[in-house]
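ok trying this again, last paste got cut off
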Amino acid sequence: MRAAYTVEWLKLRRARVPRVTAPVLLVLPAVMAALFLAMAGRDRGDAMSLKAQALVTRDGWAGYLDALTQIYASAGLLGMGVVVAWCFGREYADRTVVSLFGSATPRESVAAAKLAVLTLWCTGVSLALVPAALLVGLAAGLGLPDGDALAGVVRVAVLSVLSGLSALTVALLASLGRGYLPAFGGLVGLVAAAQVAVIAGAGSWFPYAVPGVWAVASSTPALGSVPVWHLLVVPCSATVLGALTVAWWRRAELI
């Protein structure tokens, strides 16, 4: 099992997909949030300013973090899901899955190691989001953050961790579909399903929507509150689907 962890960590660390995705997740949403805040402060009546004003209703750090939270509600799941899809789908795309039959390491151990390494990667990116968001905010001229701003950044980091756990579902989709494309299609479906659940009023119970609903509601009291214990649905569903993924790798024919 230790060998499986070592190999999967080396593959993830040296691969281009996670190395590109990590800085994109850390910088792009924060820069977009700062741009939305700047556009919302303009008095122009153009379409972009009006859309930004609808997204950002407060000034300073509060408005910046409101925008960042709403962006990350979808971007976190989508970006981390891409890395999960690559980690499992590449075994089929590169034909390396065939070598697993001759390996001394059980296939279920490989799957478990992938899930563990991906969880650590998602958590690491989420922790790095705290200084990244603060630096972008400072660069945007928002001044030193106060206690509420620091709490808001931590809330976005928690949202990111939960999004990473939700993204582990893509591992099962990539395994069942034997490649990238089914996983990417399923990932888009999860993001769309989360939006539908929110519109239908079931977002606080749907695993792929509740992190975003909780984070947005926490920063916008007018929307009401989501009980923190609702967030438990995310690790519970991730555990169940992770177990199903490991079981599939143990029993299924991989070619």
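PB: full thing came through this time. Residues 60 and 142 are 6 Å apart (CA to CA).
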